[in-house]
Amino acid sequence: MRNNFEKPVRIKKKAVRELIFWIWMIAAGGVFAFIWLAATGNGDQIYTDVVYEKVSAYQSNKSPERMLLYVLIFAGIILYAIYALYSAVCDNKDTACSFESMEEKKRKISAENAYDQGVSEFSGKTVVAAFAVMAGTWYFFYTGISTMVFITAVYIVFLLLMHKDVILEGLVFFFSVIYAAAALYRCYAFLGGLRSIGTALLGISAFIVSVLVMAQANKRMYLVRGTLVAQILIPFLLLALLQDTYRVSEEYVAIEIPFRAKAAVAVLLVIFVLEACRQMKEWGKAWDICNVVTRGSCISIMAFHLAGGTGAVVPEDLHHTFENIIGYSQIFEKGLMPYDGYISASGFYSVVQGAFFHFFGDGAYANYYLTNNLFYLFVSVVVVLLLCLHLRKSDIFFLSLILDFMAYNRVAFVLPAMLILTYPKWMDRKNLWLQTWFLASFILGIYYPVYGAAVCIAFLPLGIWQVWQLTASCEFKRMCRKASFWIGWAVCLFPVVLCRDVLWGTLRHVKAMAGQTIYADGTARFAQCIPDNFMPYLPGLRVAAFYILTFLIPALAVWAGFALAVKAAGITAAGQKLKIGSKKAALAALSPAIALSVMYSYTIVRLDAGNLYNRNGYIFPVVTVMLIVLASRYVSDCRLKRVLVCFAVFLPAVQGSFAFHNMDAKLSAYYIVPDGYVHTEDDPVERWGNAYVEPGLYESVEEAYINSAEDREITCFGTLPNFGYYYLCGLKPVSVMEMGLTVKGYEAARESMEVLKEYPSIVGGYGDTFSCSYAFSNYYLYYWLVTSGEYVWSYEKNAFLPNTGGLSKKEVHDVNKDIAGAPEDFDMGLNCSSLGSSMKSLEGIFQETDSAYDVSKDKDACQIDFEKPLDGEDADHFYIEFEGMDQNFDYILDDGDGQAVQASFFSRCLLKKRYHNGLSIVLQWADDKGELHRIRCAMSKGKLLIPLGSGRRWLLQAHSSLTFWAEQDGKRIDLPTFGKIRFLKLREIDS
């Protein structure tokens, strides 16, 4: 009796001890993050290359933010590992207490013969707890709640008070009625109905029906049978993908859906309905809710929530939309080979989704949203079928309700790969598992390199274990004697050998992008404005909370994954020795934590204002599912499993990524066309398709289409704003296509230069829609185009043309030296101070110009006279240090209105220091014709690295002098004292 009494006491004490440890670690992590941000936020970013983008424009210090996340991750892992070892030694038993391997759990469940009843009760409580976390988290952070969430909360309270014995059945029935009613509405709309409904009507109707069913004597049977009937209706949710009605002013217009798209939806709809009809055989024995939910209903609900957009009312953003699909056109329509003529900016995901766009949407922009929804329908099919290997269908049903899965094509196939690689039966077949891991890493590495690397590295420890176990077994020797073993590996290696050039190009491109990612793609969280609805009840702490949670929640996700792996390992202490119960389980459970850690190297780089997660929000649903799957497999204690499931749901709930809370957009019978939109039926730009287009965008594309009529038979680069313009105008762009956004750093510029040498192209001076003049933002490539002699400027086309006329280098220079370059009196803002503050780390890429000069200074200006005329291309950068300029500052928000902020000492710790507001330095020179040109930059901290070569008519001109002065709010003032002056030449990409 004493042993039976002491065991739960020990378990309770350990649970309390672990809870205290987690609270302490989270609190310590939050305090540490605050101190780190306050200490580094106003520091200087260390540059190793000349790259101008948001980091330099705001004079941000981005690198320490990424470092902060990894410090938190590894510190937390070390602390938890120490705690786990301490706990194992103290308890002298399994640290997990009631954590068991899956095999032990199955034996115990089988012995007790209570599988159905026990799991059913557990699942109901877990769903209620997960819903409470989901709704509570959103309300806690944003003090908001949707109608559907409120109705569901009332219904759950009703279940807990009146019908605890059928919680799971009641919840499945309730949501099945909601989605069956939504499916009936989609049938009504498909048949021509025009009235819209709201989620409130669906929720209230489901609530009333559920309460009436609960009043029946045999309520369990009616609930299960009602759910069974609903499974037949739910697949008709897919008709939402075929919505074809538009309201134009007061008229209703139908636009034909391509036949292949309708056929694909129809085939799946028939399959899902037949599956549900086949499930009706359970009618007479319909007692277990887990046996009546169908795969088709789960897929339909998931695809229904992932469907989005406005049909043929096309988006104005021609960058992000075509970024998802342009690769297919480049390779299969334009005939450009990967990493030869065409360089994918970041993987070949756009080839896959582009194939959907062309096959189901006939390549018309009007069908972009349609094919995008079909792509995610395909992803939903794959995910649900693989989840069925791990979870019961009722569990998958709830996942499809609350999680916004994979609404980001780059991450779409990460979850399927991880589900396959953690499937126990697959892991038992070691050789087959290794082949799958190899191919998954290869395919995902090409599809999206960062996430492919994450999957590869995440399963590397398990892969090493599998290799060791396989080669140490007698089975391996027998396998080596079989031809099937070698044939299997030959099949795996064949695509790798076939795509070796693509792999090498991917590696080179990833290396080039990695060198500039912080500078070219980074956005710092420090000193940003935060959403008005974020924790408004804590006005003094909400900004700090937002910044801290940006890094603490991602770290906490990795900590949770590591803790799960420790629990799955089943560590025990026997005397002075530690034993691991299941190494394979531990290594499999560790995979989400490792995958996250790799993905963060990319996702944490850009933290745009107004969003707590940004890119992290796309990967958290994957981790949520994996934590739930692995907890269900390796955790048997209901309370501990419930905690893990609730934490998994918490991750997407923080940013409101739960699907069912807002269905209103899917409950309209038509799309509304805004006033003034242009209908493009029979338009000269055929790739519009039958679309409705914003007037300004329509005129811009039409103008580009007319102006580029002569250029469709030759290659081009940077001549149009972005991907969509090239596609719609039928042009053949090479390299990364968009110069301004991508070709910034040294390696990236060299990569594009090599393509432009192999494919002589029109290289435009248009710049792009996001960056300033390419002469500044893409200086490496601009310098090469101007000075190399391989491209000559065309004033007629406002672009560089290949030097195919046999002009000498001097003749080319005579033409190119009069290029306008950056706009006159171009303001470079804080960029020059950002780079100038990092001059020590940039020394290696500059060569100091050996030029003698005299400096003459009066009260408000300084003139530098050169003894011999200075060639602009030999001194394209100017460095100057002003003294004592790091004292006068006020506090601002980086993306605010520019007004100084009056704040307490605590708040000032997270505000940006702005030095010498309104004080700028102006540089002026004369070209060979005696015309004067200027550029200017903000003084800020006084160390300025100014790219003279970006200025108008500096390159290829001989300069006798350079003058500079200071202006305060546009008026000349006394020139501050300066010390060091240097004329520098930046390294060339063709050297």
Explain what this protein looks like in three dimensions:
Strand 20 and strand 21 (932-938) form a beta hairpin. The N and C termini lie far apart (83 Å). Among the domains are: 694-816, no CATH class; 826-986, Jelly Rolls. The chain has 991 residues and is α+β, with helices and mostly antiparallel strands. Helix 19 (430-447) packs parallel to helix 23.
In percent terms, what proportion of residues is strand? Answer: 5-15%
* Unreliable stretches: 1-6, 93-121, 767-771
Which value, in Å, is the CA radius of gyration? 31 Å
Specify the number of helices: 39
Structural class: alpha+beta
Cα shape:
globular
Q: What is the third-level CATH name, the topology of the domain at 826-986?
A: Jelly Rolls
* Span between termini: 83 Å
Mean of residue pLDDT values: 90
Overall CATH class of the domain at 826-986: Mainly Beta
Helix content: 40-55%
Q: How many β strands by DSSP? A: 25
What is the CATH architecture term of the domain at 826-986? Sandwich
Largest sheet: 7 strands, mixed
What would a concise description of this structure say?
The chain has 991 residues and is of the alpha+beta class. The protein has 39 helices and 25 strands.
Feature tags:
991 residues; alpha+beta; Jelly Rolls; five-stranded mixed β-sheet; 53% helix
Question: What's the structural blueprint in terms of helices and strands?
Answer:
Layout: H1 2-40, H2 54-57, H3 63-91, H4 102-112, H5 115-142, H6 147-162, H7 167-190, H8 199-214, H9 219-233, E1 245-248, E2 251-254, H10 259-279, H11 295-306, H12 320-323, H13 326-333, H14 349-361, H15 368-387, H16 393-402, H17 414-421, H18 424-428, H19 430-447, H20 449-458, H21 460-471, H22 474-480, H23 483-498, H24 500-514, H25 517-521, H26 542-569, E3 571-574, E4 577-580, H27 583-603, H28 616-634, H29 638-653, E5 671-673, E6 678-679, E7 692-693, H30 695-707, E8 715-717, H31 723-729, E9 732-733, H32 739-742, H33 746-758, E10 762-764, H34 774-777, H35 779-787, E11 791-794, E12 799-802, H36 809-816, E13 826-827, H37 831-836, H38 839-842, E14 846-848, E15 853-857, E16 861-871, E17 877-882, E18 889-892, H39 905-908, E19 912-915, E20 919-926, E21 932-938, E22 943-946, E23 958-968, E24 971-973, E25 978-986
Parallel strand pairs: 1-5, 8-9, 8-10, 13-21
Antiparallel strand pairs: 1-2, 3-4, 6-7, 10-12, 11-12, 14-25, 15-16, 16-23, 17-22, 17-25, 18-19, 20-21, 20-23, 23-24
